[in-house]
Amino acid sequence: MTTMPVSLDLDAATVDRLAERGREAGQSQSELAQRYIEESLRMERHPGIIFVDGPVGRRPALRGGPDVWEMVPEIRGVDPTNTEEIEAIAAWMHMSALAVRAAIDYYAEFRDEIDAWVATHDELAEQHRAIWRAEPGLPPE
User: Fold this and answer.
1) Could you tell me the end-to-end alpha-carbon distance of the chain, in angstroms, rounded to an integer?
2) For 128-141, how does the pLDDT look when each residue is reduced to its tens digit (9 = 90+)?
């Protein structure tokens, strides 16, 4: 990614909070500011999407719902104008059609990023299955 210098005038309290959070996260103020600005722009463009931390990193999720990558099997290839299909997915997943539509729209814009999350989790799941299957006393596949 190419970076460009930008000058920002921030109030002292914001700079202090950014510095404190940087120390906690082990990141520079520039790295955090970049992340916060990018995430805010994405959340503004895609209402209903938030960003959450977890053991495998920071990722986009639906507010009050699953991570966007977790919805890919249900939303991949869905026509965003097909209201019936979106409502069926929403009913099956016990969420609003608005939330499903938010995931579809976010996935459409950031497909490569979300597909990378899916691939990472598929690899981790396979590694864990291999470890589990190697346990003594388990029946063969």
Assistant:
1) 44
2) 888 887 877 766 66
